[in-house]
Design brief:
About 25% of the residues lie in helices and about 30% in strands. Strands 1-2-3-6-4-5 form a six-stranded mixed sheet. Strand 4, helix 2 and strand 5 form a beta-alpha-beta unit. It is globular, with a radius of gyration of 14 Å.
């Protein structure tokens, strides 16, 4: 079985991997914006690109984990997430947890999706 790894810019890790019909992807905003909404928008745009590189897209998500620096910003993140994810047939199983994220990251999202 082949493992396809998408080459990224971060040393020691891939932004997306595809194996056996499943795509795994991760994204952060790469921004110093103090706005969780703006960082979420940027993160989701990067996630779209990473999923595409792994042969998938947001309509094929199975599972998502959202990491937030501050759980009090969850409603702000949810508003952007719900606009991005669309109608109920696209909704994955999702968890949201508080985490001590690196640098200025306010949000990080990890997903598992069916690959085409």
């Amino acid at each position: 079985m082949t493992i396809d790894r998408v080459t990224g810019t971060a040393r020691g890790r891939s932004p997306a991997v595809r194996h056996n019909g499943i795509a795994y992807a991760v994204a952060t905003a790469g921004s110093d914006s103090p706005s969780v909404a703006e960082q979420t928008r940027l993160t989701l745009a990067t996630l779209d690109r990473n999923l595409d590189a792994a042969g998938s897209d947001k309509t094929r998500l199975l599972q998502a984990t959202v990491y937030l620096r501050d759980m009090s910003t969850k409603a702000e993140m949810d508003e952007v997430w719900c606009e991005w994810i669309g109608s109920a047939e696209n909704w994955p199983q999702r968890a949201c947890v508080g985490a001590d994220l690196a640098g200025n990251d306010l949000v990080e999202i990890v997903v598992v999706a069916a690959a085409t």
